[in-house]
Design brief:
This is Transcriptional regulator. Keywords: DNA-binding, Transcription, Transcription regulation. The chain is α+β, with helices and mostly antiparallel strands. It is 43% helix and 20% strand. It has a 6-stranded antiparallel sheet. The radius of gyration is 22 Å and the shape is globular. The two termini are 43 Å apart.
Length: 317
């Protein structure tokens, strides 16, 4: 049994060109059957990276032109009924037939139900996604899963935060420890379930998925903390929940929303001061880029947090 947090890599590198599709079909893709694309001059090439989670897995899949099919017969035979929230990270041309026919563009976040047949025609592409057991999805959606096959999520709020989290997780996966990847997978699961619940009930429920909303809010704060106008009210609005519910989600972790915003700004400033990107920037410019309006406030908070002034921190690095 694979260890939670383990990173597994599958690639066609080193496999003879005329054996790659067979290798991919028999040894890698468990849910779909890959087929060659007529008229393409390029032999199939693919790479899959999987992060093992508890009751789920995060999957990054990249390949050249391919057709992937899940037939009604395969659905009956293998009994696989997992549910995936997939993000199309890069795509030259993708057409998906799954609960209807639609084009999938780079940036689209959508639902795949492996209990239903599907066919996907992809040019060169890369997807990242969260695959969970049907039991987890059913706890949120009840029996209302199949009608949502192929559904695209709105590119805002929780969906946008999960969008960023999935990409960042695979960008950093090779540099993360096993425990860190396990934590990233759990955060993705919590955010994914919170997103399904919010989509299903047309309103987010932070009290039910407090951990997922907490992680989503932290992700949003980390991404937006350079904006000096970022407030708890704006975060609650972006996540489609009340300010009181957001505060409760943070309180369960012994934290405050405003404190988390200021901490993210300080951490961004500290990283910038010690990074190649920060070379040539005045300390005052770093403060502005990190969301601080007043230099005196920035210096005071930075020294309280790190025990040194921003200028001293830059010399130390």
């Amino acid at each position: 049994m694979d260890e939670v947090g383990q990173l597994l890599v599958h690639t066609t590198d080193g496999v003879p060109a005329n054996q790659r599709l067979a290798y991919w079909r028999e040894g890698v893709m468990r849910r779909m059957v890959p087929l060659g694309v007529e008229g393409t001059a390029n032999p199939f090439r693919g790479r899959m990276r999987r992060i093992v989670g508890d009751g789920l897995e995060l999957i990054e899949f990249a390949s050249e032109d391919v057709v992937a099919v899940r037939s009604p017969e395969r659905c009956r035979i293998d009994g696989c009924d997992d549910v995936t929230i997939d993000l199309m990270r890069r795509s030259s041309n993708t057409l998906m037939e799954h609960g209807g026919t639609q084009q999938v563009k780079a940036g689209d976040l959508y639902l795949v139900d492996y209990a239903k047949p599907s066919e996907v025609r992809r040019g060169r592409h890369c997807t990242v996604g969260l695959t969970m057991s049907r039991r987890l999805a059913r706890d949120v959606l009840g029996d209302d899963i199949a009608p949502r096959a192929g559904m695209k999520f709105a590119a805002s709020g929780l969906a946008r935060v999960l969008w960023h989290h999935l990409q960042a997780t695979f960008d950093e996966a090779g540099r993360m420890a096993v425990a860190e990847r396990a934590a990233a997978a759990k955060a993705a699961k919590d955010m994914g379930l919170a997103l399904l619940q919010a989509t299903h009930e047309c309103m987010a429920d932070p009290d039910r998925f407090a951990h997922g909303f907490h992680r989503a809010a932290l992700g949003l704060i980390d991404h937006e903390c350079g904006d000096p106008n970022l407030t708890p009210e704006r975060i609650a609005f972006a996540l489609d929940c009340s300010r009181a519910a957001l505060y409760r989600a943070f309180a369960k972790h012994g934290e405050g929303v405003s404190a988390a915003i200021w901490q993210a700004r300080l951490e961004r400033a500290r990283r910038t001061l010690g990074s190649p990107e920060g070379i040539g920037l005045l300390v005052a410019e770093v403060a502005v880029l990190s969301g601080f309006r007043e230099m005196s406030n920035f210096t005071r908070m930075f020294k309280r947090r790190y025990g040194m002034t921003p200028s001293d921190a830059r010399k130390q690095d």
